[in-house]
């Protein structure tokens, strides 16, 4: 018999091996094998099985499978189907998708379960002599019903030697037992009971279980009780004997989030999280595959969790961009969830307070089911929101310099006096990407596309990342003539310094990429803030979501424009989402909340709608713009990436491919080849081509044909990002 194996080499092809006779019965699709490859052994997954060597024309040419590394398949037929269809859609080699679907900790050679000595009480066969102390230890072990040797030594203040002696006397049994390393271990979690749903929640829950197989989009404001709906939907799925996956953006995957699921479902919950140790991840994954854990909570890769008989996938904060993987394979976990739901006949629930326009449009066209929740379920009301136009501040003499408006400083002072807490949010997205006028707040835009140019430092020019056109960096603002045009945003450190100057006595915590690089400091900072060990939390988008601080009554957005001016057609959408999410942080408990948004674009529809928490108005206006300009969700936009350590080589091939794609894709819009905004990273020169049109498959077909038509030099690294989120 012959089997075909995917080996992790990104060659986008399967390798045939012959199966030794004694292995034939045990071999199954989806298993992990060890196979000879070149002069070494490699690991690979069996994807095809059957046929004999003769019929395949392989007689005598094939190497044999070395051994089966794990008889339980890593991929069910349904999961393999998902991997295949995803790999075809995003034009990524199948083995790269297989690899992304299983945690590295599980595939690492030598990864194995942990076994520890477990002690169980037993009845000695005959009368044994025993000390008073041993009798006491024995009684405790009986009372506890047994335990791990290392823990008992601590709890009963004894030693392994003593326990072994007792074992020899037949008082206890000592044997190795598999121990699951769980991230929830040693944490006391109080069980929670289902809450009585309000009518809106009940309606949403009912919609999860209507007969329709469509995904359900739950558009519910922050605090409207979406999580409680997920919990009750999962409970019902578990009752039916099925499993569930809950996807949460990495950043919102805090202990509090996990706790809410663990409190309801106990050890049926498994967590997959990038902060887990390898051992924990290995064990959690195996608990899922074995069916011991039936509810998986995790970030985007959790969409591949080996849950059998899957009944439900929840994608919380479905609009979050972290669901898009920006490395190969470049998949969007929300879209993968929808695909998996279709394949496995599982219900998919997408939840958000600010749905993506992609999903919202699917709801409008009837592709998705849709329900809205417009009231808070728990205590608290929506905050008061105020826009402060920084343009009107010119000449104002405030001590915060250009960073803080007088209104915001007064509001902070007020909170300090009342011993309430403040969150200040500094938007750093697109930092130093677009060119903004410090006087009027305007950007320099491409004439052809009406789209902000991206600043390219290497050759001091501005490039349009939609069409590839470029101009030299202008000296003056095209709108107001000012010479104060800049590529810089405000940094968190500068904002912190200015704040301390205004409030020397205030306790300020800063949270940004720098301050959270240590493993736990993210949780540490938030924990400290929750315990009111600080008055003000100043941070980047990291603090924008998922957090629930009862004592926070003021949220300030320092520079709403930073994301608005991004050279990204989703800039307005991102800005709306950010402001709406940040605002959701204020006034979640009894105390009323206030939100102050500083902007130079107070008339911009996205800012106005965000301040009014009016998703629908925003969505209607923005969808009209996208349709008018042939942008997603009305089209599919993909980016071809070409990189090499040889600049000329990358450029020449990118230009050749841009021309070829233009010819092959007549009804599509194909940009010129252009350097990426960061032209050179790690010694690699990066070029890109943007392709957009009504569908994806012709683009993939043309691209694959081009790759096959002419041998691509080894020193060139190429990939396509289908439905791209990142244009720079
Ligand atoms: P969301 O996920 O939509 O942001 P949550 O599920 O976190 O909302 O709910 C917000 C708050 O409301 C939580 O403190 C939650 O315990 C509470 N809550 C949710 N549903 C109910 C309900 N039916 N009755 C009372 N309180 C509720
Ligand atoms: Zn200007
Ligand atoms: Zn352009």
Structure characterization notes:
The chain has 728 residues and is of the alpha/beta class. The protein has 21 helices and 33 strands. Strands 11-12-10-13-14-9-15 form a seven-stranded parallel beta sheet, sandwiched between helices. A six-stranded parallel beta sheet has the order 16-28-27-17-26-25, sandwiched between helices. Strands 2-1-4-3-5 form a five-stranded antiparallel beta sheet. A hairpin with a 2-residue loop joins strand 31 and strand 32. Helix 1 (77-89) crosses helix 11, helix 17 (571-583) packs parallel to helix 18 (605-611) and helix 20 crosses helix 21. Residues 395-400 have low confidence and may be disordered. The protein binds adenosine-5'-diphosphate (ADP) and zinc ion (ZN) (2 copies).
Give the topology, please:
Elements: E1 2-7, E2 15-18, E3 32-37, E4 40-49, E5 67-70, H1 77-89, H2 94-101, H3 104-107, E6 114-121, H4 132-144, E7 147-148, H5 149-155, H6 160-168, E8 172-179, H7 199-208, E9 216-220, H8 226-239, E10 243-247, H9 255-265, E11 269-271, H10 278-289, E12 295-298, E13 310-316, H11 333-344, E14 347-352, H12 357-364, E15 369-373, E16 384-389, H13 406-418, E17 421-425, E18 436-437, E19 445-446, E20 451-452, E21 454-456, E22 461-463, E23 470-472, E24 485-486, H14 492-502, E25 508-511, H15 521-530, E26 536-539, E27 552-557, H16 561-564, H17 571-583, E28 594-599, H18 605-611, H19 615-628, E29 636-644, H20 647-664, E30 669-670, E31 674-681, E32 684-693, H21 697-709, E33 716-721
Parallel strand pairs: 9-14, 9-15, 10-12, 10-13, 11-12, 13-14, 16-28, 17-26, 17-27, 25-26, 27-28
Antiparallel strand pairs: 1-2, 1-4, 3-4, 3-5, 6-7, 6-8, 18-24, 19-20, 21-22, 22-23, 29-32, 29-33, 30-32, 31-32
Helix pairs in contact: 1-2, 1-11, 7-8, 17-18, 18-19, 20-21
Bound molecules: adenosine-5'-diphosphate and zinc ion (2 copies).
One zinc ion (ZN) is lined by residues 446, 448-449, 451, 464, 466-467, 469.
């Amino acid at each position: 018999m012959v089997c075909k194996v995917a080996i992790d080499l990104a060659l986008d092809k399967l390798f045939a091996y012959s199966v030794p006779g004694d292995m034939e019965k045990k071999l199954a699709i989806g298993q992990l094998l060890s196979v000879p490859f070149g002069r070494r052994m490699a690991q690979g997954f069996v994807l095809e099985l059957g046929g004999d060597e003769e019929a395949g024309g392989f007689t005598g040419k094939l190497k044999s499978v070395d051994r089966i590394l794990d008889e339980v398949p890593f991929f069910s037929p349904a999961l393999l189907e998902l991997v295949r269809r995803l790999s075809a859609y995003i034009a990524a080699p199948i083995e790269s998708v297989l690899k992304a679907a299983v945690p590295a900790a599980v595939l690492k050679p030598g990864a194995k379960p942990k076994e520890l000595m477990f002690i169980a009480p037993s009845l000695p066969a005959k009368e044994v002599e025993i000390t008073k102390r041993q009798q006491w230890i024995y009684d405790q072990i009986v009372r506890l019903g047994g335990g791990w040797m290392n823990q008992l030594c601590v709890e009963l203040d004894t030693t392994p030697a003593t326990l072994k002696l007792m074992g020899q006397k037949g008082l206890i049994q000592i044997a190795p037992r598999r121990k699951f390393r769980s991230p929830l271990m040693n944490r006391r979690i109080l069980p929670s009971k289902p809450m009585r749903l309000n009518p809106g929640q009940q309606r949403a829950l009912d919609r999860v279980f209507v007969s329709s197989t469509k995904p359900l989009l739950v558009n519910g404001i922050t605090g409207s009780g979406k999580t409680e709906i997920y919990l009750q939907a999962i409970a019902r799925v578990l009752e039916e004997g099925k499993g569930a996956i809950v996807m949460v953006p990495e950043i919102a995957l805090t202990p509090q989030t996990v706790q809410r699921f663990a409190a309801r479902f106990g050890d049926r919950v498994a967590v997959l999280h990038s902060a887990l140790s390898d051992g924990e991840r290995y064990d959690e994954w195996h608990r899922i595959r074995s069916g011991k854990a039936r509810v998986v909570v995790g970030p985007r890769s959790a969409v591949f969790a080996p849950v059998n008989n899957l009944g439900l996938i929840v994608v919380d904060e479905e609009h979050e961009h972290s669901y898009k993987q920006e490395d190969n394979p470049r998949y969007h976990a929300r879209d993968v969830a929808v695909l998996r739901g279709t394949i496995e006949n599982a219900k998919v629930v997408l939840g958000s307070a600010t749905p993506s326009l992609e999903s919202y449009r699917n709801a409008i066209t009837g592709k998705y089911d849709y329900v809205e929740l417009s009231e808070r379920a728990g205590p608290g009301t929506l905050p008061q929101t105020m826009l402060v136009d920084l343009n009107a501040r010119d000449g104002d003499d405030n001590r915060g310099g250009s960073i803080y408006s007088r209104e915001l400083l007064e509001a902070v002072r007020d909170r300090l006096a009342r011993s309430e807490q403040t969150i200040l949010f500094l938007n750093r997205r697109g930092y130093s990407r677009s060119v903004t006028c410090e006087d009027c707040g305007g950007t320099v835009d491409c004439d052809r596309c009406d789209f902000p140019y991206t600043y390219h430092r290497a050759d001091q020019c501005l490039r349009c990342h939609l069409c590839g056109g470029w101009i030299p960096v202008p000296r003056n603002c095209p709108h107001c003539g000012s010479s104060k045009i800049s590529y810089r945003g405000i940094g968190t450190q500068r904002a912190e310094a200015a704040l301390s100057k205004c409030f020397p006595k205030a306790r300020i915590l800063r949270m940004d990429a720098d301050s959270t690089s240590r493993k736990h400091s993210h949780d540490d900072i938030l924990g400290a803030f929750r315990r009111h060990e600080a008055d003000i939390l100043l941070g980047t988008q990291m603090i924008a979501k998922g957090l629930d601080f009862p004592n926070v009554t003021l949220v300030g957005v320092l520079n709403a424009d930073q994301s608005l001016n991004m050279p990204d057609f989703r800039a307005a959408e991102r800005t709306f989402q950010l402001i709406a999410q940040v605002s959701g942080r204020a006034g979640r408990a009894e105390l009323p909340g206030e939100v102050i948004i500083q902007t130079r674009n107070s008339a911009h529809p996205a800012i106005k709608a965000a301040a009014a928490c009016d998703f629908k108005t925003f969505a209607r206006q923005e969808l009209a713009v996208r349709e008018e300009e042939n942008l997603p969700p009305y089209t599919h936009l993909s980016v071809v990436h070409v990189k090499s350590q040889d600049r000329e080589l990358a450029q020449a091939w990118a230009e050749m491919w841009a021309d070829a794609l233009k010819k092959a894709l007549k009804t599509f819009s194909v940009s010129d080849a252009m350097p990426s905004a960061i032209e050179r990273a790690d010694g690699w020169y990066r070029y890109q081509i943007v392709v957009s049109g009504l569908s994806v498959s012709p683009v993939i077909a043309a691209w694959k044909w081009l790759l096959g038509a002419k041998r691509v030099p080894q020193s060139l690294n190429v990939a396509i990002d289908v439905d791209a989120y990142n244009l720079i």
